[in-house]
Write a structure and sequence with these properties.
- With 465 residues, this protein is an alpha/beta fold.
- The chain has three domains: 3-59, no CATH class; 73-296, no CATH class; 314-440, Glycogen Phosphorylase B (Rossmann fold), CATH 3.40.50.
- The protein is 35% helix and 15% strand.
- An eight-stranded mixed β-sheet has the order 7-6-5-4-9-10-11-12, with helices on both faces.
- β4 (98-104), α4 and β5 form a beta-alpha-beta unit.
- α5 crosses α7 (198-216) and α7 runs parallel beside α8.
- The longest helix is centred in the middle third of the chain and has 19 residues, at 198-216.
- 30% of the residues are buried.
Amino acid sequence: MTGAFNSPNEIINSIKLICFHDIIEKMNVSQINLIGKIESSICKILKNYCNKRNIILKTSDSSENKKFHPIIFATLNDLFKVFLNSTFSKKTYSKTKTIFINYSNKESPINYWGNLKKTIGGDIFDINIDINRNFGLKNNCISNDFVFSKIDFLLFFKFYFSILKNFFRSKRIKYNFNKYLDLKPLFKLSHKRSFFGTTAISNSIYYSFFQRYFRENSDVKHVYYPRENQAWEKIMLKIVDKNAITIGNLHAALKFWDLRLYYSNTYYPNFFTVYSENIFDFLKEKKFLKNENLFHVESLRLKSFNKNTGDRKALLVVLDYDYEKSIEMIKILKKNKILKKNIQIRFRPHPSSYERIKKTFPKLKYDRNQLEISVSKYSHFFCSNNTSLSLELFNSGLNVAVMNSIDLLDMNPLRVFKVKPKIIFKLKDLSIFLKSNIKDTNSKTMISFNKDLKKWKDLISKINK
C-alpha cells in the first residue's frame, strides 16, 4: 500500500479503508507493509485493525499525530477576535417582511436571486454569508449589504458554551464500521473543531446574529436562502420556526454522492425549490425526502451560454474550490509544453481559492471576466468534477470534459442526469478531448429557464394565500 491514502477528505479515506477491509476479508493476509508517507490517523486505524486481526503491520511512517494545543491556541485567537468585534449595545435593524440570504464576499459578489427580488418587490433585507467564512477585525461571517454587523457578545457565548459543554459527552460517539475497523481517528480533528474550535465559533456567530435579528424583527414573513443543509441553515430554521415561511432554493448542481440532503428531516424549509424537472423527479422518488415540499421553478443563478462561433481552439480550465484538486488539474497541463503552444489556455479559479492559486502559480494566465464574456471566447472547457459550471456549459451544448482521478469521488453533477461527458484522468485524455469538436457532444435540456419567472410567480401566489 502506498501513500495514496494521503487526503484531507475524511469521507474519501473512510471509503478507501472500508474497501481495504473488504479486500482483507477475501484474502489470507499475515503481514501488511505500508510504503510512503501516510497520514498518522490512517496509520493509527490500521495498527488497531491489524492488532485485532493478528496481522503484522510494518510501516516506515514517522509522522506524528496533530497535537490538541495548536487547536486551543487557534481557538483562543478566534475568540479574542470575536470579543474585539462584539457589542453589548442594542442594534436596530430595518423592519422588512422579506429576507434574501446570499453566499458572497466583497471581492466576489454573486447574484443568487436574479430578477426575483424585482418580481416580489417591496422592502427587502439582504443578509450575506461570507463564502470564505472570514471574521475578525474587518470581516464578519454575516453582513447585510456588505456592511458587517457586530456580534452580540452575550448571545454568542450562550450558544458557544452550550456546544462546549457537550464536548466531552460527544467523545462517546461511535465511528465503528465493524468490530475490526474503527474510523474515529479520521474524524478526530473535525470533531474538535465542531465542539470546540472554528466550526463551533462560526455556528455561534450565526446563532447570535439570527437570534437577535428575528427577535427584534417580528415582521418577517418570508425568508429565501440558498439551500445546502449547512449548519447555519439549521440554526436559522430552528430560530425562525413557524414565525415565517422559509424557501430553500437549490442554487447549484446536485451531485450523485451528495450527502447534504440525507439529514434534512430535522429542520427543513417550508418549500424546497429546484431548477430542473429531472432533479425534481429524482428527489421525489427518495423516501428520506417524503416530508419535503418540493417545487419546480426556473433557475435564478445557473445560466445558459452562447457557443463560440470562431474556428480557433481555445481551452478554459475551470478549477475547483478545493485547492488540492485544482493543483491536480494544473499539473496535467503543465506536463506538456507543446500543448500550451498549440492552443490558447486560460485558467478560471474558484473565487474562494483564487488568491492562493495565483500565489502558487503567478505565471499562469487567468480569466476572471464575467462568465458570459469568458465562455464566448473558448471552444473547449475542462472542469473540475465538483463545479456546477460543467452542468451549465453542457446544458448550453458546449464541448465539456470533467476531471477525475482514482483519489476522487465521482462528484460529476451531470451523473444525476444520466449523461456522460468526456472524463479526464491523464494528459492523453485531455489531448484527445482537444481534438474533438462540438458535434461529438450531446445536448440535453437539464435546467429550466424563463425570463418571466412564471413558476416562481405561481409559488409566490401560493405563499401569499
